[in-house]
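We close this part of the discussion by returning to an individual protein. The sequence in question and its structure tokens are set out directly beneath this paragraph:
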Amino acid sequence: MKSILGKMLLIIAMLCIASAAIAQVNLPRVSQNASVSQTIGVTDVKITYSRPGVKNRVIWGQLVPYDKVWRTGANEATAISFSTDVKIEGQSLPAGKYALMTIPGQTEWTIIFNKSADQFGAFEYKQEADALRVKVKPGETSHQEWMEFTFENLSAESADVVLRWEKLQVKFAIQVDTIAKVTADCRSAMGSLKADDFRTPASCAQFALTNKGDLTEALQWIDKSISTQARFSNLATKARIQAQMGKKADALATANKALTMTKDVAPEDIDALKKQMQEWGAQ
């Protein structure tokens, strides 16, 4: 009896060892995983997908049927995430993670952002979970063997997501309100500044100046920075804000004060301010 029990335990142990050995084999996928990410202004966008190959197959209308929901890749449905609210082709989409489904057509594609981000293929796709649908036109491109997503035409407030596979490309535009987001963050930050923090209000003031924000508010922020620690950099920023507001005499006075604090300041920064002072004095 003991001998039989011992043999059974040995067999079970061998089966477990064999099973564990098989589980450790990491085989490559036919359509390998990929991801691409891009920061647009202050918004992080990430696309995770699997890359099928053409492999001498007819893709559009056969391997990928027209007028049916497609996972937009292979294996798991392609996923896309946004760290802030965005607009897709001008239509609003809340921050979050979505399954990026599509309905390919010969002359028009439907781009779908579905709330069920983690699903395999499109087998469990439900239209009622769609957060947004937009229509776009496909175009021709050079041969692309492995399906690929890229971010193109990047600016601080927009980018195009481009899908290329075989000899076809489809793109959709992402728009973000970077100025409104950063301005809101700056306003929030002003109420919780540390006593020695002169950099945050200076950075916010510079952002408003550079991006045509509220100059009255920018002036308040730069004054907060200067009252904490006056430096060449924040005084120069204040002078530029004053000049932009049409207060040239005040700008010159502030700039002259900045020029008394040039220790460890790069010569090109000093020269740039002096050149602007000449322009302000001439007007």
About this structure: The mean pLDDT is 91. The first helix runs from residue 2 to 23. Residues 49 and 218 are 42 Å apart (CA to CA).
